Amino acid sequence: LDNEVPVVRRALALKCAFSHLTPTILPGELIVMGKAHYYRGSFPMPWLSEGYYMAKEDELYQAALDKGSASADEVSKFGAGGGNVTRNFGNVVSIAG
């Protein structure tokens, strides 16, 4: 793998990671696979997941200010487990894409 291009190395690493992931399908579950470390049954791709936050930076910051907070970090918990918040409510600002 030392002489492979980064895209091929990344693909082989993901192939290995997904081949060692044991699925857990609960009765009635719409999104299959048990929770991984912080994400549901998946491996985060930083070059994809960070793009959302960079694109929505101003909007998330303004939403945090509207909630009376000086920082978006005070109202959003990233990588703390659980499901996706798909809409704003109370003091919670949705960061789901």
Would you kindly provide a written description of the structure presented here, covering whatever features stand out?
This protein has 97 residues and is mainly α. The protein has one domain. The protein is built from 3 helices and no strands. The protein is flat, with a radius of gyration of 17 Å.
Name some characteristics of this structure:
flat; 97 residues; mainly alpha
Q: Care to give the gist of this entry?
A:
With 97 residues, the chain is an all-alpha fold.
Which helices and strands appear, and what pairs or packs with what?
Elements lengths: L5 H14 L26 H10 L1 H10 L31
Approximately how much beta-strand content do the residues carry? under 5%
Output the helix-strand order. Answer: HHH
How many discrete structural domains? 1
Contiguous uncertain segments of 5+ residues: none
Mean pLDDT: 68
Largest sheet: none
Distance between the termini: 34 Å
Number of helices: 3
SS-based structural class? mainly alpha
Question: Which of globular, elongated, flat, extended, rod-shaped describes the shape?
Answer: flat
Rg over alpha carbons = 17 Å
Portion of residues in helices?
A: 25-40%
Number of strands: 0
